[in-house]
Amino acid sequence: MKGTEASLLDLARDLLKNHWGLSADMQRLPGENYNYLAEPESGDPVVLKILSEPHADPGLEDAVITSLHEEGVPVPLVIPSTAGLKIVPIEGMEATARLQEYLHGTPWKSMPSSPSRLRSIGAFMGEMHMHLGKFDHPGAARTHEWDLASAHVHREKVQLLTDPGQRQIIEYCFHLNSALVRPYLANCPSGLLHGDINDENLLLQEDRVVGLLDFGDCLEGSLVQDLGIALAYALEQEGVTLEVAASLIEGYDERRPLQPVEQDLLVPLTLARLATYVVVNADRMSVHPANSMRNLHLDTAWAAINTCLAMSPVEARNILCSGCSIKGPMHDEPDSIRSAREKYISPSLSLNYEEPLHIITGRGQYLHAADGRPYLDLVNNVCHVGHCHPRVADAIARQSAQLNTNTRYLHEHLADYAERLCETMPASLDTCFMVNSGSEANELALRLARAASGAKDVLVIDGAYHGHTANCIAMSPYKFNGPGGGGPSDWVHVLPMPDTYRGPYRDDDAGSAYAIEVADIIGKACSSGRSIAGFFAEPMLSCGGQVPLPPDYLPASFEHVRNAGGVCIADEVQVGFGRLGEVFWGFELHDVVPDIVVLGKPIGNGHPMGAVVTTRAISDAFDNGMEFFSTFGGNPVSCACGLAVLDVIKEEGLQERARVLGNLFLEGLNDLQGHHELIGDVRGQGLFLGIELVRHRKSMEPADAEATHVVNQMRDRGVLLSTDGPLHNVIKIKPPMVLDKADIEMTLGLLDSVLNQF
Ligand code: PMP
Description:
The chain has 22 helices and 27 strands. By secondary structure, it is of the alpha+beta class.
């Protein structure tokens, strides 16, 4: 608002005189708004409001106040001007004036919050929401700076906080908001919200609420948002623990029982409000220190944040909602699950992290643990379009309620899906087989290669993993050369990893130099009487440690393989389907067309699917009279799922998203490399990245323990990463492709602070 305090006070006095015919002493009331108390010599005190906020809609406010007044809710009625106007435009200013009744009562702020008082406030809010849940006004569909449903817009202001510890805490509050609030808010009962139930807007007499002021922030939203705001103010009061604040929720729940989904949102919404307050204040201070908020209550806001974060979100929810009538689902304790798992599941299956996670739900890029903590999933390249994408889940549910059978009947989904897959490939790759996993797909690719070539042997790249079946293990140096492995089989020839960071060739000609090694190995195999059926290659090495193939390597190697009578197989299980951003398939990066492409992981977004796409000539060579049949492969449910995944990738622009976000991520990681000696190499593209940690950049001594430490520390901070590579020192990044910029910024900030420990 333009003008000094004194000039605005004069303006208020003039407005009151000119439009309402009242002369009175006036004073500005506490708070952010321009509200002036007038005490005329005769008659009741009144409040003149000068409104200039861009989102102010006095018509909406008046409608809400009138409606609540009719329901007996104590709200200040609007007093029309002598000309009969409820809203008076102020000449020469983009502002309006309004006169309201003055309600007597003590602001909540000045009354200690006892359980009985909080219960009464909760009951008042519940009662009010029962009315407001039904209120409808065209002007209510709006948002503004303090709308909790869009608290995320303030996240970028976190960087304005100068204290790194504070920054990390507020960043975490916004992370909770992104993971726990945003995906679920729309599932909560909605209606009109007051939008700012703070400790100045509620008036009390003893425990009774005798007034609710200031509907300037009212808007349509999820009713639980109002509770997040009221809880933030309750928890700011001295002595208000979560146990005490539970009375507010209990009082509310008696009037409007809270659904479990709303109960889950209480703590993260409260934190979102407090975090918004902290960063909006920092923002105002950064623009102009004199612009900081009136009635600064940063200390108490921080105290409330600490109260909420002193335990897990579920523990905090359980305390707050101990008096709620509807109980949320309970989960087994991790220890009992672990002992049952150990009893019935083979110990050859491992668990991630020193302290394993008990994950119960997933949404988008986040996984949720049973204790309510959300984790940003930077590991799972299977849930390509996001965990539990509603469109994919719906496609599976609908088709499984209609028909699920095998490929021995005509069904449009199989034909459609095969056509859609082929459309993403070069023209020669025109024939599909549907299976259930990447291993099965590689196993089938091996049979196809052998049928087409009449040969038996294969070439694989050192460090590669192609699956868990007997033949796939035999084709996976990652396994057969690792713990418990039996070494190479006579029909498998291992090619050196074309690694330009650690390998023998690192310059611009490295691709050709490594390809000469391929020719040499083929030559040696053939001269010892072996013949080559195929070459299995990932277009970017995954288990090998996120290693991009140098230019010229694949074209030259493919030529050598084909000259020897073998076929070329691209294992796109990890890198395909748009993950690399620039291209849909990894092989496209190298300007080659494989003879067989192996698909897995992302194609079903978690539904067990794999596929092989090849040429009609290879499939004809395979078609020797023996039927190919996979009981589940290509069933209508899997195909419906696969079609939905393809639709989502296209409609949500995920390939382009991977390109843009990948560049952003790489830029940030390169920047970190400049500050942290431990980062020897940053590589990859799109959303398939690797960070190789070394103790000394010159000796390249692998920092494997450090990599594991970083991964565990990041897990403790809510970000899931993994390590891989033959030396176990490469941190891998391959998230669901719905990740957003704020997730990347948070990750980079956390990585920076964890790396500072070394
Ligand atoms: N190929 C590659 C490159 C893989 O990474 C994997 C799995 N990690 C497979 C094949 C095997 O896929 P699945 O586990 O679905 O059998």
